[in-house]
Protein 1
Amino acid sequence: MSPLVKIRSERDRMSAVERRIADFILENAQLLRDYSSQQLANALGISQSSVVKFTQKLGFRGYPDLKYSVGEAIGRTDEELPAAGRSPGDTVSAELWVRKTRAEEATRALNEADTMTAVVTALGRADKVFVAGPGEDDHHARAFAARLALLGITAICHADLGRMATDVATSRPGDVLILFSEHGRHPAFAKLARYMRERRGRVITVSRHTANPLRSMADLALVVAAHDDASHVQALVYQSTLQHLMDIVFVHLCEGDETRHQRLVENLDRIQHLLEP
C-alpha cells in the first residue's frame, strides 16, 4: 500500500500529535525529501522521537525508510496522472480514477483475507441474512440483498428499522445481520446489533475505517478507506469503494460454491425469460 494512502486511511485513528505529523506529510509530500526527522520535528514543534515513533507505528523501520517510500509513491502518482494536452474532461476523469484506485487499494489492504473469508463463510451458512442501511447506505444494502437472493440466500432488507427489528426477532443462531453505516453512529443500529447478538446471530458491519460505536459491536467488520481533501470527491470515492468491496464479497460467494453459482445462472435465466416479449 502507498504510504500516503496508508496515512490517509489511518489518520482518524491517530493521536493529536500523530495527526499533525500525518497532515504535514500529506500536504508537503513533494518537499519531504528535503526534511530530516529533526527538521520535521522542529517545523511542527514536537520531539524527534515523536516523528520516529510515528514512522515505526506505520510499519517502517525508520524515518528514512518512510521518506524513500513517499518519494516512490509520488513518482508512481506522476506516471498515473493525465498527460498535458488532454481536454479538461479527460483530466478530471483520469484524476478521479486515480483517487478511486488509491482508495480501493487501501481498502483491500485493510480488509484482511481472514476477515473476508469469515464474512463469506458466515453469509454462505446463514439460514437468513438481514440487511439494513440508512440514507445513501440503503442503496448499497438493497443492492447487496438483491444479489444474495440471486444466489439463493434468503435476504431480508428494510429501510423501516421498526420492521427490521421485528424480523430480527425471528432470527436463529447462525443467522447474519449486516449493517451498512458510513459513520457507524446510527443509534438504532446499535440496538439492532444487540438484538441480533441476543439471538446468537452474527453481526457484520460495513463502515468507514474509523473508530465508531457500531464497528466495536461487530463480530466481523468490513471497512472502507475513502479519504480525500475535496469533500465532493470524498463522497464519490466512498460510494465507489464501498461498491467495489461488496462486489468482492459477492464474487467470493459466487465462485466459492458451485450450487450457489448454478442458482445464480438459473435465476438470471428466469429474469431474462420474464423480460422477453
Protein 2
Amino acid sequence: MNQIGRYLLRNLTVATLFVTVGLAAAIWLTQSLRLVQLVVEGGAPFAMFLKMAVLTFPTFLSLVLPIALLSAVLFTYNKLTMDSELVVMRAAGLGPMALARPALLLGLGVALVCYALTVSIGPAAQRELVRMREEVRSEYSAVLLREGTFNDVGEGLTVYIRERGRNGELRGLLIHDIRSPEAQTTIVAEYGMLMDVGDNPRVVVSNGTQMKFYEPTGKLEWLEFGRYTVDLQVLRKQLGTRWPDPRERPIGELFRISNDPLDQEFKSRLRAELHSRLSTPLLALAFTVIAMCALLPGEFSRRGRASRIAGAAVAALVLQSAVLGVANLVGKNPTLTPLLYATCILPTVLGLWYMKNWRIVRRALSRRLAPPAPAAAE
C-alpha cells in the first residue's frame, strides 16, 4: 500500500474507533441500567455488576461496528472532499476504486472481527451473562429485604426491617409467618444478622420476642429470647431447567442440532440463528461500499454532499432492516435462507461494479432521461 493508502487507512481507522467507542458507550449505559436494577434488588456485590457490564459488550458490539464503519467512511471521505484533498488525489491519477481500497481493507477487517464476535466471543459472553443473572436471582435473593418496608418474601411470610447496618446487620425486625395452617408466628427483635448456614439463608435475631397464636384453640404462646434463628429458605429461588436461548449456543450446537425434543421443536429457530451469525458480519463490507458509492463517484462540489450522505444513511438503514426482516422470515420458512445471504452480499457486489463503471451508468442514464430532439421542419 502506498503512502496515500496508508494515510486514508489511518484516518478511517481512527474515525471508526472513535465512533465505535461513542456508540458502544451509549448502548452500554442503557444496558447497565438494567444490570444496576438487577444487582441492587438482588444485593449482589459491585464486582459482579462490573463483570456483567463487561460481558454485555460482545453481545452488541457486532451490531455497532458496521454502523460505526459506515459513519467513519462517510465522515472521512466527506472531510477529504471539503478540504480538497480528494481532488488532489484524483488529479494524481487515483480513481474511485483506488481511493476505496483502504476502506475496503478496513471493512474486511471489521467483518472478520464481527465474525469472531458472532461465532465465538458473543455467544460465550451471553452464556456467562445469563449464568450470572440466574446466580444473582438465586444466590443473592436472600438479601432482597428493603428497609422501612413490609417485604412479602413468600406466600404467607412478611419481613419488616427498620434499618440495615453494615456487614449484613439488621435493626428493628418484625417477622410474621402464617404459612402454617395451625399457628401464626410473629417475631419482634432488636437486632438480627443475615447469613448462610449450610447453604441456607437464615436470620439470627437477638433480644426479641416470639408470639405464636394457635387459631383452632385460641391459645397464645409468648417467648422472650436472647438469640434465635429463623429459617428463610423461601428467599432462595430454586431455578429449574431452562432451554438455552439460540443466542447462547456455541456454533457447533447450531450446526449439529441434538435430538432433544425442545431442540427438534425449535429447530428452525436454531437454524435461523446459525445463518444470521454467518451472514450479518458481511454488512460491514456492504455498509462500506454504500458509503463509498455515495461519495467517490461523480464530480467535486464545494457545496457539500449532504444529500448523498443522507441517501447513504437511509440505504444502510433500509438494508439493516431488510436483513433483520429476512432473518426473522428464515426462522419461519427455512427455504428463504439463500435470500438472507443475497441481501447481505448483493449490495457489496453491485456497489463495487457501480464504482468501476459509474461513468457508463451516468451516460446511460443521461441519454435515457434527456428530452427527445425536436423534429426537423419539412
Protein 3
Amino acid sequence: MGLPAGIAIGSGVIDAYAGWIGTVGAKVKLSEDTLDSHIPQNDVSQAFTRLAAVAGTSTCHLAMSEKPVFVPGVWGPYRDVLIPEYWMAEGGQSATGELLKHVIETHPAYNEATSLAESFNTNIYDYLNEHLRDLQQQQSAPTISYLGRHFFLYGDLFGNRSPIADANMKGSVVGLSPDKSVDGLALYYYGTMEFIALQTRQIIETMNKAGHQISSIFMSGSQCQNAILMELMATACDMPVLIPRYVHAAVVHGAAMLGAKAASTDAQGNGESLWSIMDRMSKAGKAVHPNKDATEKKLLGKKYEVFLEMCESQQRFRKGVDEVVEGWGKK
C-alpha cells in the first residue's frame, strides 16, 4: 500500500463493534435529560451495565461482561474481542429499519403519505410521527401508545435472531381493520415501533436472566433520530436510552478510537488502554428516560405479555401443523 515502515495500524472490527466502541464510553449522568462532560471519569466496569444497540436495517445488541455469560439465542460469549480479559455477547433483531420500511411501503396509503411528506418538505418517518401526535391531540389520547392499545403486531417477518433464534418465525397482526387511510398507516407504523421496543425488552430480559446486568441502552445508527421509537424503547424496557452526540458517526467515531489506540502503542507493544481512549474521546449525548405515566407503563407491560404470547403461540401452531403433515406426500 506504499505505507512507510513502522507506521501504526489499528485493528479492524465489525461495524457494529465499532458502534460499541464509539458509544458506551460516554460520560453520562443517567438521572438527567442532558448529559455533560463534567462527570468523573468512567470505570470500565460501567460497560457491563450498558447494552449497545446499533440500529439500522437490522439491530445488533452488544454487551460486555467480566465473566463468561452464556445466553440462549445470543452469540458468544467471546473473550478478548475488544478489551483483554473481558467477554462480549452479541444478540440482534433480524429486521428493524427494514421492517419499518416494509410495513410503510406495502400499505395502501403509502403513496398518499409520501406525497404529504414531500409537501411538508420532510421524510415519511418524521411525517408519520407528526401525524401520530396530531391523532393523539384530535382524540384527546393521554399518550400515543393509547392510540394503538387494541392493535397487536408481531413483526418477525424475516425470522428471529434473538432471543429465540428461530429462522422460521413470521409476522402476525391482531386488530385488523379495513382502514386504507393514512390514519391506518400511522397505526401500523406505530405497532411496528412498539414491536421493536418490546422485542428489545425480551432480549434484555433474557440476557439479564442468564447473568448480565444491563440497565441502560446506548443507541447508534439511523433509528436514533426517531423520537417516538426512542421514547417507546425507554418506557417499554424501563431504562434510559442514550443517544450519541454524533448520530450519523458513532461507528466512524469508534474506528477513529482504534486509530488512536494504534498511535499510542510503542515498539514494545505498550500503549493506552482502549477503554481509557473511549473515555477520553467519547462525547456527551442525550438521555431519553422512561415515561413516568404509570398507566402507560401498565399498558406496555400488558402489551408485552401479549407479545410473548403471540411469539409462543406461533411456534406452538407451527409445531402442531407440522406434526399433522409430517411425511405427507413423501414416498
